[in-house]
Amino acid sequence: GPEYVRAIAPYQAGKPIAEVAREYGLDEANIVKLASNENPFGIPESSRAAMLEAAADLGRYPDANGFELKTALAKRYDVPLEWLTLGNGSNDILEIAAHAFVQKGEAVVYSQYSFAVYALATQGVGGRAIVVPAVDYGHDLDAMAAAIDADTRLVYVANPNNPTGTFIPAAQIEAFLQKVPARVIVVLDEAYNEYLAPEHQFESSAWVRKYPNLIVSRTFSKAYGLAGLRVGFAIAQPAVTDLMNRIRQPFNVNSLAQAAAVAALNDTPFLDQGARNNADGYRQMIAAFDELGLEYVPSFGNFVLVRVGDDDGAGARVNVALLKQGVIVRPVGNYGLPQWLRISIGLPQENAAFIEALKKALG
Ligand code: PMP
């Protein structure tokens, strides 16, 4: 195989509950998983009902163009259907963008400590990564704009960012978009957008109207609670969307996922409940970190990055101590953050179980 494929370090997903139960001799029912930024409420009831109905038609292929879902999204974001691309999770969107716009040897710009899939998508097409040093664990957009060279085809920006939870205000994003040459595609990855407080929300689809090189990426995996179904989508102008739709798999979003996403999209009570729980849970987490004197990065997502020790073994060591107590979180050594752990915000009792286990783990 190509050398650039052999150089890829595989994505490290959160450990599954069943695996941890077996490995540490624990009862699955007692395990708390706060490792993958999943929605602690699970799938919305409205989506469950829609899936049951859609199940009757599983002998057929999914709608290759996702007509109903795109229609619902078009209405919600006030864009034509031709501006939408569906993905098998937004992960798929990130990869489709690389496939559609980057050739072997061309460059992709992204930030240090930004989402791991940017590196994977870049390497997957034999692209050259330009990794721009972070500032305060977040994107340095001025440096990222300056890093764009003649070979650069794509820039990934995560807002909020995973795993650090940092957020870039609207004015800074817009200033950045104005600096990026029109020949360079910007993927604005807004996987955690729905967790932002109203004062931080902005109409990113309005920017798509203004910037023909912008792709806004969203997901149903987080606030909408459909991580297991794999649905994401992109909003971009038709010329860009057309290319993405040529390169994507024809049936990349399955029938159950399409039906569930339509239902979830308009389930405002579910979203509101999730946002409230997340805000409360975040306060619960950082109160504990303050009490324990632990440094954390202020987060705008449904997770928080906390520094659990001063030595480079700290993250791995505390992670194992938590696993032994049945709490699964995410070590981020692969991001170059070996002293830190990323904790997803769960239900109040899950957060409490984590905090108790953390206190024991730290001795
Ligand atoms: N972008 C960011 C910043 C993420 O954290 C994630 C999930 N970890 C994704 C995209 C991809 O999520 P999904 O494929 O489930 O939409």
UniProtKB/TrEMBL annotation:
One GO BP annotation here?
L-histidine biosynthetic process
- Sequence ranges assigned to domain Aminotransferase class I/classII large in this UniProt record: 30-353
InterPro entries to which the protein is assigned, alphabetical: Aminotrans_II_pyridoxalP_BS (IPR001917), Aminotransferase_I/II_large (IPR004839), HisP_aminotrans (IPR005861), HistidinolP_aminotransfase (IPR050106), PyrdxlP-dep_Trfase (IPR015424), PyrdxlP-dep_Trfase_major (IPR015421), PyrdxlP-dep_Trfase_small (IPR015422)
Q: Determine the domain of life of the protein's source.
A: Bacteria
Which cofactors, by name?
A: pyridoxal 5'-phosphate
Known Pfam families for this protein? Aminotran_1_2
Q: What is its EC number?
A: 2.6.1.9
Pathway(s) of this molecule: Amino-acid biosynthesis; L-histidine biosynthesis; L-histidine from 5-phospho-alpha-D-ribose 1-diphosphate: step 7/9
Task: Report if keyword Cell inner membrane is assigned.
Answer: no
Reaction(s) catalysed by this chain, per the record, are: L-histidinol phosphate + 2-oxoglutarate = 3-(imidazol-4-yl)-2-oxopropyl phosphate + L-glutamate
Q: How does it assemble?
A: Homodimer.
Q: Which HAMAP family has this protein been placed in?
A: HisC_aminotrans_2
Protein family: Belongs to the class-II pyridoxal-phosphate-dependent aminotransferase family. Histidinol-phosphate aminotransferase subfamily.
What is the protein name given in its UniProt record? Histidinol-phosphate aminotransferase
Q: What organism does this protein naturally occur in?
A: Massilia aurea
Question: What taxonomic ancestry is recorded?
Answer: Bacteria, Pseudomonadati, Pseudomonadota, Betaproteobacteria, Burkholderiales
